[in-house]
Amino acid sequence: MEGAKAECVAGDGKEKPDGTEVVHLRRTIGLLPAISFIFGTVVGSGIFIAPKGVLMNSGSVGVSLLVWALCGVLSTFGALCYAELGTTFKKSGGHYTYLLETLGPLPAFLRLWAEFIFIRPAVASYVSLAFGRYVVEPIFAPCTAPTVLVALVSILGVTFVVAVNCWSVTLASRTQVTLTIIKTFALILIIIPGIRALAQGQTEHFQGAFDSDTLDLTKLPLAFYSGLYAYGGWFYLNYVTEEVINPNRNIPLAIILSMVTVTVCYVLVNVAYYTVMSADDLLMSDAVALTFANRALKGLSSLIPILVSASCLGALNGGFFGVPRMLFVGAREGHWPALFSMIHIRRQTPLPAVLLLYPMVVVMLGRGDIYQLINFASFSRWLFIAMATLGMLIHRYRFPEYPRPFKVPWVIAVIFTVVCFFIVGLSLYSDPWNTGGSCALTLSGVPVYYLTVKRQHLPHRLRRAFNYISRQLQILLEVAQQEVPTY
């Protein structure tokens, strides 16, 4: 009992009896940083790139606006489900933790495997490519920017974000708040002139908005993928539950406030786009916000690429802040090498988990095509989200008395889960190459799980070599296990 009390005192005081700091992740994220974290991660490159993908696969202006609104509603439903999951299970780790607690270790490991192998590299790649494109294209306009230069600038953006998240949790949090303010200004700068032009009667691009001749139902799931990609990020706060101050209050509040604001902003931004540009203009543009600025903000057009680039950095920063916590928790549960459950002894950041993702993102940048990357990553991402909310419903049924500080109406949870499974299933038909590849890579984790986690059938010599390398990396990176529990 005295030992437990001493441990609590050490954890609360952040110091050991000898005066040195206790190694653990601290609760430093209040309500404003939490809102900035969600809003700043959701509003990244998506709203400046995805309108083309949504329009291309929906076929008309009216249907594309409907898709944007429905994606906002669907994302808000999902965010409310995750608010319940985040207050029910107090561990960090997001999808991984919820699958582990509700459906078991194999689905949880597959989520971890897919995140590391291709989901996070693909997501970070298309955000960083958007960053590189908006930095480089204005310099070479009206000519096409060199692909190699776009890739190099993209890598520089990723490197900056990785460095910030390795250096300090506080610095990463403050960076997120600052970039969120900048990207909010960017959205306002697009919305106001667009709505003003609409109010002045500039409605010609909305004529025949629901032309059914161009609608292809088989491509509609891909339109939703592009829209949902732009809303992606509402679940990132659940990755860092153990670092949120008063999570029972701040997680639901931050999620609700953020998602309502994002949905309204996204619909208004797309209305502004279509007020100034025709559907053909939008489809021909690789940088929609830049094309919009050249037409509606002639005096400020040079400012838009800077604001959009900052917006992309904010989304990258949010991703590299949240996702390493999933790898961190997975390693803590024994589903990932133990090195990745360690924290830097002075900076208190999950350094190995952050660094692990960096080379994977750089490699994935070689694919280059943003829209293929979206489809490639989205299949598994949304499959596991649907499985997590299905697990939530199963957990409710099996353990009705389990304490749930925030409880979403079951109708919302059922609608969200069914729609997600429907979109995921139909996308296999719409884009079998990318979604099939995503499915195959996900399932490749099954033999890995049974060989390395379930039964540990690795040769003794290989395990010994791996342990030696891990120890050397631990010394080099100056990292150690958490010394007090944070959940």
Low-pLDDT residue intervals, each spanning 5 or more residues: 1-13
Shape: globular
Radius of gyration: 23 Å
From N to C, what is the helix and strand string?
A: HHHHHHHHHHHHHEHHHHHHE
Total strand segments: 2
Lateral strand order in the biggest sheet = 1-2
What do we call the CATH topology?
Amino acid/polyamine transporter I
CATH top level class name:
Mainly Alpha
CATH architecture: Up-down Bundle
Distance between the termini: 19 Å
Describe this structure in words.
With 487 residues, the protein is mainly alpha-helical. The chain has one domain: Amino acid/polyamine transporter I (Up-down Bundle). The chain has 19 helices and 2 strands. It has helices at 2-13, 31-42, 46-58, 61-88, 95-102, 105-140, 147-167, 169-199, 220-231, 247-276, 279-284, 288-296, 303-332, 351-364, 370-398, 410-430, 432-443, 445-454, 460-477; strands at residues 342-344, 479-481. A two-stranded antiparallel ribbon has the order 1-2. α6 (105-140) runs antiparallel to α13 (303-332) and α7 packs across α8. The protein starts with a helix and ends in a 6-residue tail after the last strand. Mean pLDDT is 82; it is low at 1-13.
